[in-house]
Write a structure and sequence with these properties.
The chain is α/β, with parallel strands linked by helices. The chain has 15 helices and 26 strands. It has a five-stranded parallel β-sheet with strand order 6-3-2-10-19, with helices on one face. A five-stranded mixed β-sheet has the order 20-18-12-25-26, covered by helices on one side. It binds flavin-adenine dinucleotide (FAD).
């Protein structure tokens, strides 16, 4: 049975729900797909701790100052116009979310409390529940989205198009394969952390949106820039999703130490423990390699009232037997955020008519070579809402879609554990030419696969996206942002541009 809608949204995190609600407000019929069961913790949005970066009126902050910090973190690859456009729209989007019921933490004067995170020169991060911002953003959006037609356990497996424009989505439902016919499709599928053995991302973050877009012939960019969060809780576990220790803890004075108690960030960057994430992650990685230690430590013993201000972090630490008020917190860098993704403008329009993307799956030009902390919830809210409006407008002008059968070429995949091993070894915080060549060779040996389950489909998506990341990382023979090449440690002004990628006729990722 074919489902019909004006707009199909794939994903129920911040970007998907912002998009779905905006398209519905614009008067269009909307169907929202989510590959998971409806449960807490199904989206990356739910796990966000630190907060949302936003310029509040009547403060010493300004859009220009927030833009300047974002561009500085982005290592010369942000699109300044996109950054300005998104940052300038931030307060309106956050105020709308508050009007829809989101409750952000306030100070004694009743105004939203502001904290600081790495790379920000001002206190401009609003938060909720102390360090449970994402859970509150998700709660408020879920509540507002009660009016939306949300189909849980529906995995989007292919984008349908007639060569010129989008006509719908192929889905795997609990009752088998189906089709959603729609002239507008919004990818809001989140990140790709499960390219790696250990990640802060939930199970659903398998790069599906980038793979769907590449398979359909759309363009992606900046995929080599994968942010490794410096402080993932080190609990000795082998892999999978691992908890994050928010950077806001360092914003409140916590310091990074090595196993001998020496400060790791001393003398490395003027912002010290609050240097941009790539700098901190690379410094920890280098110290661990030099000393052979399994983990570094975060000293939060000097943070005032740590259990009240950081209840999530405290509970995570207590669960592994560590009291952050009295003991050091063991941490290690982990795959966290994809700065690149499906190429879009600041309104979520991709290179393909009818296809939109928003949130972590998209490359709007906001993050460039490295994302500034707490800029992603902001981007998801702003661009999600805009993509919903743009998709609604497109649906109105394009009219009802009539999808033909799925025509995608057969997929290929390698074993997920093997893929994660090679990515974690060769394409991690530090890369080099021979390691990237070895990874490419391994991925080339992918076997043809006809996806019958969600897991099969995800394996094919992970394999395509891994190959695209490796191609982009091999192409960029320099170090910039969160892409660190051991064989090209310097930044090369001649490479201060994005690397756009498409699949070629043999389905290999090629620089466009
Ligand atoms: C631990 C952690 C802490 C973070 N802290 C912060 C922070 O403090 N501030 C900040 O700004 N950012 C933070 N981030 C980043 C931010 O949370 C994410 O980038 C953002 O929430 C992504 O939102 P999204 O809507 O793009 O994707 P998600 O919230 O991940 O949602 C993706 C959705 O797509 C669905 N999906 C995926 N593939 C398919 C498919 N094939 N078919 C159907 N459905 C599919 C998933 O089921 C899910 O519903 C953090 C991230 C993590 C993991």
């Amino acid at each position: 049975m074919t489902i019909r809608a004006d707009v199909v949204v794939i994903g129920v995190g911040v970007a998907g729900l912002a998009a779905g609600l905006a398209a519905q407000r614009a008067g269009r019929s909307v169907v929202v797909l989510s590959k998971t069961a409806p449960r807490r913790g199904a989206t990356a949005t739910y796990y966000a701790q630190g907060g949302v970066a936003v310029v509040l009126p009547d403060t010493d902050d300004s859009v220009a100052a927030h833009v300047a910090d974002t561009l500085a973190a982005g290592g010369g690859l942000c699109d300044a116009d996109a950054v300005t456009s998104i940052v300038a729209d931030g307060y309106r989007a956050v105020a709308d979310l508050a009007a829809a019921g989101a409750r952000f933490d306030t100070g004694p004067d009743g105004r939203w409390s502001l904290t600081r995170e790495g790379g920000h020169h001002r206190r401009r991060i609003i938060h909720a529940g102390g360090d449970a911002t994402g859970a509150e953003v998700q709660r408020a959006l879920d509540h507002a989205a009660a009016t939306l037609d949300i189909r849980a356990r529906h995995t989007a497996t292919a984008l349908l198009h007639d060569g010129a424009q989008i006509t719908g989505v192929a889905v795997l439902t609990p009752d088998g394969p189906d089709i959603v016919a729609a002239p507008s499709v919004i990818l809001a599928t989140g990140g790709l952390g499960h390219l790696y053995r250990a990640t802060t991302n939930p199970d659903a973050s398998t790069g599906d949106g980038v793979a769907l877009a590449l398979w359909a012939g759309a363009q992606a960019a900046d995929l080599e820039f994968i942010q490794f969060h410096p402080t993932m809780l080190f609990d000795g576990a082998a892999g999978g999703r691992r908890p994050l220790i928010t950077e806001a803890l360092r914003g409140e004075g916590a310091r990074l130490l090595d196993a001998d108690g020496e400060p790791i960030m001393a003398g490395i960057h003027p912002l010290g423990d609050l240097a941009p994430r790539d700098v901190v992650a690379a410094a920890i990685d280098a110290r661990l390699r030099a000393t052979g230690a399994d983990c570094a430590y975060l000293d939060a013993r000097g943070v005032a009232d740590v259990a009240r201000r950081f209840p999530t972090v405290t509970a995570l630490c207590v669960a592994i037997g560590v009291d952050p008020a009295r003991q050091l917190i063991p941490v290690t860098p982990g795959a966290h955020y994809s700065c690149g993704g499906v190429s879009t403008d600041p309104y979520g329009r991709t290179t393909m008519p009818g296809l939109f993307a928003a949130g972590e799956v998209a490359r709007t030009g906001m993050h460039g070579a490295n994302r500034l902390a707490s800029n992603s919830l902001l981007e998801g809210l702003v661009v999600g809402g805009r993509a919903g409006v743009a998709a609604a407008e497109h649906a109105l002008s394009a009219g009802p879609a009539t999808p033909g059968p799925e025509t995608s070429a057969p997929r290929a995949a390698i074993d997920r554990a093997e893929l994660q091993r090679v990515m974690s070894t060769e394409v991690s915080v530090l890369r080099d030419g021979p390691g990237l060549a070895a990874a490419a060779e391994k991925l080339d040996r992918a076997r043809p696969l006809t996806p019958r389950t969600r897991r099969d489909f995800e394996d094919a998506a992970l394999t395509t996206v891994a190959a695209a990341v490796v191609a982009a990382a091999a192409h960029r023979a320099e170090s910039r942002g969160c892409h660190h090449r051991a064989d090209f440690p310097d930044t090369d002004d001649g490479q201060a541009h994005s690397v756009p990628l498409r699949l070629d006729d043999t389905r290999d990722a090629r620089v466009a």
